[in-house]
Amino acid sequence: MKIMVTGANGMLGKDLCPILENIGAFVIPTDIDNLDITDQNATDDFIQSIHPDIIVHCAAYTNVDKAENDSENAYKINCDGTRNVAMAANKAGALMVYISTDYVFDGTKNTLYLPTDETNPQNVYGASKLAGEKEVIKNCEKYYIARTSWLYGHNGKNFVETMIALSKNPELKVVDDQTGCPTWTVALCRAIITLISNQKPYGIYHTCGSNYTSWYGFAKEIFKLTNIEANLKPCTTDEFPRDAKRPKFSAMDNGGICPDWRESLKEYIEMRG
């Protein structure tokens, strides 16, 4: 099985490529240094030349706050770039897996979001990723859209490491009125493999940690598992203003495809050493 991975140098891609190799796949990693997905002709030429069986599209503009004032680039990468990959994948007869986000929702629902629920992004990042979803659906016959959330991993800046680094502060305030599903990159990789291996029906899936918490609750669990004593205090979103509006409640129903977020966090901490 020949699998092409875009965004291979990102936090998710760095975990995904070796995990795919471990299951026997021939992995073709790509990133901006060898493939500019915003160049339609270059993307098509590259994909037709290697003729992959599967393309896992991890490449994305992911700076949520910066996107508010940089919407042109966010859409160029997340929408136009995704369209280029989707069209080329379809032409090559490849299955496409597109990594999307919980930020396609507005956060006004009080129960877990289902893949069939109405989308209504509240920030540029979420809107650009939703535009990418639509390009995949429009241009690729064989696809999985994998929405994930609150991603952390060993190969990139993430909430877990930030909390540990800040734990010695005299006081550490963390938002307690935003609720979502923390997701470990490795758990997401395993979910992607489940999608492509079990031949599930094409469509949209939620590939996030099971159950949900607030950022404050996430931080509490981090300190519990690391035996760190920190002066952790809950605060409101209004006390910690950001450029991009975040959904208050973006927890998603994953259909059992990923384990409980606390179980994954424990495994992450143990591997961290």
UniProtKB/TrEMBL annotation:
Entry-linked InterPro entries: dTDP_dehydrorham_reduct, NAD(P)-bd_dom_sf, RmlD-like-bd
BP-aspect Gene Ontology terms: dTDP-rhamnose biosynthetic process
E.C. number: 1.1.1.133
Involved pathway(s): Carbohydrate biosynthesis; dTDP-L-rhamnose biosynthesis
Keyword flag Electron transport: no
GO terms of molecular function: dTDP-4-dehydrorhamnose reductase activity
Family to which the UniProt record says this protein belongs: Belongs to the dTDP-4-dehydrorhamnose reductase family.
Record's protein name: dTDP-4-dehydrorhamnose reductase
Organism: Candidatus Galligastranaerophilus intestinavium
Lineage: Bacteria, Candidatus Galligastranaerophilus
